[in-house]
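Dear colleagues,

As part of the handover before I leave the project, I'm documenting each prediction I ran so the next person doesn't have to rerun anything. This entry is a single chain, and its sequence is reproduced below.
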Amino acid sequence: MKKDKLSRRSFIGNTSLMAAGAVAGSLTGTGYAAIADNIERIVKKGRINQSVSKWCYGKLSLDELCAVSKKMGIKAIDLLSPKDFATVKKHGLVCSLVNTHSLTKGLNRIDNHKQCLEQIRSAIDATAEYEFPNVITFPGNRAGMADDVGIENMVTALKQVAGYAEKKKVTICIEYLNSKVNHKDYMFDKMAWGVEVCKKVGSDRVKILYDIYHAQIMEGDIIRTIQDYHEYIGHYHTGGNPGRNEIDETQELYYPAIMRAIAKTGFKGYVAHEFVPKRDPIESLAYAVRICDV
């Protein structure tokens, strides 16, 4: 290749960052409080309702993340608690998914039902008051339990709260996580497990949180899974694999095609970015927002 020509990888990387909104570089050293004023809107098409998980952006306050997100065209902030709702609302944004109970000690054990269901109901009340859409739940770890027993216990618990969720117009989302890298022994690590739970509960207010990063590690075949099971999916998370970092050309998932598959199903919920930036966080978020705006 001639010296005056860029490599394909360099070209993709450079043009991606320019197209993302050119928010990095010139913002270096300005401080996060001033960043939002320099960002132009990135979302143009808006077929995907984009959100972003606060825990991935520890250097930004919730106020700052909301301001940056609003300017980019992101509609929501993910995985917050009721104490954060007023801040989100102030910026004209939504909390797309609300925290509830423990990830490792969840609804697959009857001993956990009372506490977990109390926390779910409390979160549903707060979520409904602000007219936000979703709360999260988990089965917990296996600890030797058979999958079919976990399914039955999960269904027993969710049937106790599904009607309440329907009344309050809030969806309970069961998260699919990988048990290979990040969450050893977690029970819901295959899509079929969660689909079976949803079928047995039989409520439109009990759905799956399909985390694409986790699903790629466990089963792959992301687009076909979305096509086949979209009716059971109430929420999505993004993340690059390997590493759960930027969803760019450094990793194995091609998010524009995945987003087109989601949009084609008619999905009207939220797709939340839940990757941990290794580089400039605002630049990385801007790039993710652009490539998911399909």
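DSSP finds eleven helices and eight strands in the chain. The radius of gyration is 19 Å.

All the best with the project,
I.
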